[in-house]
């Protein structure tokens, strides 16, 4: 009987990392579901929900991924995933929001609270410092689900919050 697992790999970022991990998972006959990858400073994190075929265990996947040359010195963890493997409606992205400018302590917290006031769900979040000739800029990107009847008010509140912090806010509807 197949089983669903959560695969987590953290190691130094290097070219070919995603291809190596995804390729080995494919060779084992597993099917990747929701998957994320992010460079975090000099590190990288790969996380995925995967369905393993009969006869392949979480320990097999963990051992195989840890042996990859692309994942040298990686922290690999594969464990049973007991939640639903397919996300519900609030996991679908309705809007993409980008807030840029100087770094402000509490920025992510304040924006997340603004989303929360309107029952919005942050589906993806990416924040990074971008070096530049005029000084570093901080860019925060949110992919969110906002209840349709609350979208206009939510987006206005997020834009006002960003403005209070002297930041630029742009948004677009997801397609």
Structural write-up:
The chain is of the alpha+beta class and 175 residues long. It has helices at 17-27, 58-66, 107-117, 151-164, and strands at 3-12, 31-40, 43-52, 75-80, 95-101, 121-130, 137-145, 168-173. It folds into 2 domains: 3-80, 2-Layer Sandwich (Alpha-Beta Plaits); 89-173, Alpha-Beta Plaits. Helices cover 26% and strands 39% of the residues. The strands form 2 sheets. The protein has a 4-stranded antiparallel sheet with strand order 2-3-1-4, with helices on one face. Helix 3 runs antiparallel to helix 4 (151-164). The longest helix has 14 residues, at 151-164. The model has no long low-confidence stretch (mean pLDDT 94).
Largest sheet, if any? 4 strands, antiparallel
Shape: flat
> Structural class of the secondary structure composition?
alpha+beta
Q: Give start-end ranges of low-pLDDT stretches.
A: none
Give the % helix.
25-40%
Mean pLDDT: 94
CATH topology group of the largest domain: Alpha-Beta Plaits
Q: Which CATH-level-2 architecture of the largest domain?
A: 2-Layer Sandwich
How many separate helices?
4
Number of DSSP strand runs: 8
Q: Identify the strand order in the major beta sheet.
A: 2-3-1-4
The topology string of helices and strands comes to: EHEEHEEHEEHE
**Strand portion:** 35-45%
Rg for CA atoms: 19 Å
